[in-house]
Amino acid sequence: MKIRQADRLKALPPYLFAEIDRMKAEVAAKGIDIISLGIGDPDLPTLPNIIDRLKKAVDNPIHHRYPSYEGMPSFREAVAQWYGDRFGVDLDPVGEVVSLIGSKEGIAHAPLAFVNPGDVVLCPDPGYPVYSIGTMFAGGEAYLMPLLEENLFLPDLSTIPAEILDRAKLMFLNYPNNPTSAGATREFFEKVVAFARENNILVCHDAAYSEVYYDGELPMSFLEIPGADEVGIEFHSLSKTYNMTGWRIGWVCGNQDAIGAIGKIKTNIDSGIFQAIQEAGIEALQGDQEPVEELRKIYQSRRDLACGYLSKSGFSFMVPKATFYLWVRTPEGLSSAQFVGRILQETGVVLTPGNGFGAYGEGYFRISLTVNEDRLQEALDRIGAVSW
Ligand SMILES: *Cc1c(COP(=O)(O)O)cnc(C)c1O
């Protein structure tokens, strides 16, 4: 029998990292030592207090049964408490917080709750690919909002055509931003609230990197803006803050009606997060936060090392105030794929080509600061030794 795939799988965009994966295997087969600055996955282990809490929780049979789909009340209370302490945002843990099996899960499923076939979803380009693919899986159409360096990688809302605004249901935003590492200003978020109200568009803000910041400059939550809870929700995650990418735990919070709608989708798809992991999540949010400050110092020192070296070598980029990424222009005349391909083949250093995040990422590459300083220095030395 021939297995016939659904049209939605055929409609997936080409996987732009396939060529990199192939080259990487080829380079590794030659015995070249590969240094990957490619993926955005913290290299350091989950903090020990969180691991200990999981170990204890896992022995308790009360946690062995089906969890509730919306999350344990104690986990959602810990989230609400943390939002209050960190952002001064007041959340009702019962109606305004739903746990997610990692925020990617919620981002991918959210369009099912709001988008009808033919509806438009505004998505950033370059951007995390899940926004537009979740949209497409729900039968919606992604309208790509260019994030341009001249606008500090914020979308220019005034350029979105009226015909698109009429059909738009959702807008995805993500600050601090992956892949550009840009931050949002309060003025921008205020504009977004007014824009959403005027056009009846639900704002889905992805705040995965709010705790990976530098120089003591704390990024904002979208929900801090007056009126944001009428027009928006925020996705958040323990993955990046606490080195917990493998644990699959996050949440979405904000507008009660929107959270209820996502909850309805989730009751019909999954059965929540293993309770022992939610216990560990409570420990992450309520335990000692000093180790998180230490992690920020580690990233900051890597950032300073990489930025110093790259600017000396003549590369052009904005120094990130948050995230563990550097978004760097390729040398004059080289496409993202040409640059990244040559670096990989000649040096064994894996970088991410900017066009993998969308057409407006062309001409850039992304460096992930998720290797130790020795390896980072080695990678930078190798990149710097290539002549163009
Ligand atoms: C890493 C990341 C996420 C979150 O991932 P989860 O592990 O699924 O919580 C969400 N958005 C962006 C932009 C990311 O880079």
Task: Describe the protein in words.
The chain has 388 residues and is an alpha/beta fold. The protein folds into two domains: 7-45 and 290-384, Aspartate Aminotransferase, domain 1 (Alpha-Beta Complex), CATH 3.90.1150; 48-286, Aspartate Aminotransferase, domain 2, CATH 3.40.640. 41% of the residues lie in helices and 14% in strands. The chain has 14 helices and twelve strands. It has helices at 7-10, 18-29, 48-58, 73-87, 103-114, 130-137, 162-167, 186-199, 228-231, 256-267, 275-286, 290-312, 336-347, 373-385, and strands at 35-36, 97-100, 120-125, 141-146, 168-174, 202-206, 232-237, 250-254, 325-329, 349-350, 352-353, 364-368. α4 runs parallel beside α11 (275-286) and α5 (103-114) runs parallel beside α6. It is globular and about 60 Å long. Bound molecules: pyridoxal-5'-phosphate. Pyridoxal-5'-phosphate is lined by residues 40, 102-104, 128, 174, 178, 206, 208, 237, 239-240, 245, 250.
In short:
The chain has 388 residues and is an alpha/beta fold. It is built from 14 helices and twelve strands.
Helix count?
14
Give a count of the beta strands, DSSP E runs of length 2 or more. Answer: 12
Q: How would you name the CATH homologous superfamily of the largest domain?
A: Type I PLP-dependent aspartate aminotransferase-like (Major domain)
Judged by helices, strands and strand pairing, the structural class is alpha/beta
Report the uncertain regions. none
Classify the helix fraction into a percent range.
40-55%
Summary keywords:
388 residues, alpha/beta, Aspartate Aminotransferase, domain 1, three-stranded antiparallel sheet, 12 strands, 41% helix, 14% strand, globular, binds pyridoxal-5'-phosphate
